[in-house]
Write a structure and sequence with these properties.
The protein has 319 residues and is an all-alpha fold. Helices cover 76% and strands 0% of the residues.
Length: 319
């Protein structure tokens, strides 16, 4: 993996992840407001999100001052770069489009909790299968607890709160999220920051190209009685939880352990659930709340288990 810029300090990486989690927590709320104000569908919304996000990154790259490089980075193999960009772009496309569809189907709170709760579980299983990472007893128990939380949430939440089709879409979204995380861990990132030449910008371009045809079939231009509100929401989605949040996330995830990242990203479902209940008037049954708590506790347990395994490896390593 090549790096064209100095390594980001871990402390700053943690701050970046916190800001990304808070910003992502508002994306679903903005989508819910778009659905209430227009007939724009989830595919078209995702398309405009990526087009707008790419435009913001291009503008930021053009305005960013050029820094002189004292060390010339070694070139990354073209095939490796194309695989990383393509896999990241497709993963983000599935992640965001399925998530917006889940919000439309079953509400912001439930869709976000299932997506971000199931994501770390799929990451842990995927890392075991593709990277050979051990789960350990604690990790296995955490995965089992997360699956139990999902069952309580989906089966006990009540039809008015949790719709099966929305839950399935949220799980598909979680699979896309896990794919992006595993690709980042296996292949790394290009280190180019949030500019147009980075993985983030190219992934947005891949997503926009993949979504153009289905978005056109769904309807690219929304029919609405309040075009200014819808336009404002689309701009917000493109700038804050897309261009800014993804650039911060990829930069932070490159220097912060995956376990720590998983715990920090719990900010997103918690903030989204608060927004859904307080501002959007969504209601959660006692079973849904219980499933949510169990799911998030399992994710925290999974992160703690990974941290213990990493500490044991460091202690066993020769000095």
């Amino acid at each position: 993996m090549s790096n064209s810029s100095p390594a980001l300090p871990v402390g700053r990486g943690l701050v970046y992840l916190v800001l990304a989690g808070v910003a992502w927590g508002t994306a679903g709320a903005a989508a819910a407001l778009v659905y209430r104000s227009s007939d724009l569908g989830p595919i078209a919304l995702s398309f405009w999100r990526y087009v707008g996000g790419l435009a913001v990154l291009l503008a930021a790259h053009a305005l960013r001052p050029r820094r002189r490089r004292t060390v010339k980075p070694s070139p990354e193999p073209v095939r490796r770069r194309l695989v990383r960009i393509g896999a990241t772009g497709l993963g983000l496309t599935v992640f965001q489009t399925a998530y917006f569809a889940a919000v439309q189907a079953t509400g912001l709170a439930v869709a976000t909790v299932i997506t971000l709760g199931a994501g770390p579980v799929l990451i842990a299983v995927g890392a075991r299968l593709s990277l050979g990472e051990r789960l350990g007893v604690g990790g296995t128990a955490a995965v089992a607890g997360a699956l139990g939380g999902l069952c309580v949430l989906v089966l006990g939440g009540g039809a008015a709160t949790v719709r099966p089709d929305g839950a399935v879409l949220a799980l598909v979204s979680a699979a896309g999220y896990a794919t992006v995380n595993l690709v980042t861990r296996r292949l790394g990132r290009d280190g180019g920051g949030p500019g147009a030449g980075s993985t983030t910008g190219w992934a947005f371009a891949v997503g926009a190209v993949c979504l153009l045809a289905p978005a056109a079939a769904e309807g690219l231009l929304p029919q609405t009685a309040d075009p200014l509100l819808v336009l404002t929401l689309l701009v917000y989605v493109a700038v804050v939880p897309t261009a800014l949040a993804y650039a911060l996330y990829f930069a932070g995830a490159a220097v912060v352990r995956a376990a720590t990242t998983s715990v920090i990203m719990l900010i997103e479902p918690v903030s989204a659930a608060i927004i859904a209940v307080v501002l959007l008037g969504e209601q959660l049954t006692l079973a849904a709340v219980s499933g949510t708590v169990l799911l998030l506790a399992a994710v925290a347990g999974l992160a703690a288990s990974e941290a213990r395994l990493a500490a044991a490896v460091r202690r066993a390593a020769p000095a």
